[in-house]
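Exercise 7b. Backbone tokens:
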């Protein structure tokens, strides 16, 4: 099972929502959302998962952003009330960082998705859990494997080699992961990553000098690789539209040979044909959708 771990930014949420609305992912996909703020986009996304009876976990004690779930109960705001209703639906699982005290947020320490990202917090696990009492799933770093020996471990890795500037990707092609091939052999029930966004979180945004499109694909060994398509005219932050088309042209030419067929790739082709610029948020959304749909297809095929 694949647990894509995404922050609750607008276009990451829309990516998940559109995957469900377009029936692009199967039951092997179990998204984990760490929300950065309360928004109608967040509640709409959760509601789509609720209505389609699809599993999703939402982290109740996020380490980024400014959302405090403990304050929702005291609010009369419509979005807050909607949020409170949705997070108590059975297929919307509550998730928690082990780095924060869990009982402060929930009295059910088993029916949760636990996140263990910091090695220094691993010892806290044994103070809360035992072999008989475990979380439903525990997303953990590989280095925690010998310390946390529960039956529902999910391998968590940050596989995206994030660069400080888009221009630094330089149209490169690099290894992304093969966790999907070996996670069961290593004693895990699933694998997780931060897609083409990476674990690093920043509140601020800015106009980039270069536009980069990140596309994952399977090579001949079924390893997952990522190809970066970068614009050429990167001396300043003007003409983002033109830079997008430069990167997109390289992507389309590459895919003439690769023939990747996902909803996102078909949308990129349509944007190229129509010479249309959707905005950088949509570009990121499409890259995330492509990644998750591709992995979903791979996992579905392993069952047949």
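Sequence design result:
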């Amino acid at each position: 099972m694949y647990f894509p771990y995404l922050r609750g930014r607008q276009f990451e949420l829309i990516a998940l929502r559109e995957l469900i609305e377009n029936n692009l992912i199967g039951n092997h996909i179990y998204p984990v959302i760490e929300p950065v703020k309360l928004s109608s986009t967040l509640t709409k996304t959760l509601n789509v998962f609720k209505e389609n009876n699809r599993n999703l976990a939402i982290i109740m004690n996020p380490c980024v952003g400014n959302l405090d779930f403990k304050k929702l109960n005291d609010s009369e705001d419509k979005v807050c009330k909607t949020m409170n209703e949705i997070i108590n639906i059975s297929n919307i699982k509550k998730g928690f960082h082990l780095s924060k005290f869990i009982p402060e947020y929930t009295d059910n320490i088993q029916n949760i998705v636990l996140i263990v990202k910091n090695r220094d917090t691993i010892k806290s696990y044994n103070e809360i859990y035992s072999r008989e009492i475990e979380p439903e799933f525990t997303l953990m770093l590989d280095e925690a494997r010998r310390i946390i020996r529960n039956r529902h471990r999910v391998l968590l890795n940050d596989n995206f080699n994030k660069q400080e500037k888009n221009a630094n990707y330089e149209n490169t092609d690099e290894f992304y992961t093969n966790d999907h091939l070996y996670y069961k052999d290593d004693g895990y029930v699933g694998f997780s990553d931060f897609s083409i966004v990476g674990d690093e979180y920043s509140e601020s945004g800015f106009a980039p000098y270069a536009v980069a499109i990140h596309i994952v694909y399977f090579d001949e060994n079924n390893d997952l690789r990522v190809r970066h398509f970068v614009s050429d005219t990167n001396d300043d932050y003007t003409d983002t539209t033109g830079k997008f088309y430069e990167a997109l042209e390289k992507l389309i030419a590459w895919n003439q040979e690769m023939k990747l067929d996902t909803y996102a790739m078909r949308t990129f082709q349509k944007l190229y044909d129509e010479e249309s610029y959707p905005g950088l948020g949509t570009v990121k959304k499409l890259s995330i959708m492509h990644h998750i749909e591709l992995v979903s297809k791979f996992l579905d095929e392993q069952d047949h």
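Instructor comment: The first strand starts at residue 2 and ends at 7. The CA atoms of residues 231 and 243 lie 5 Å apart.
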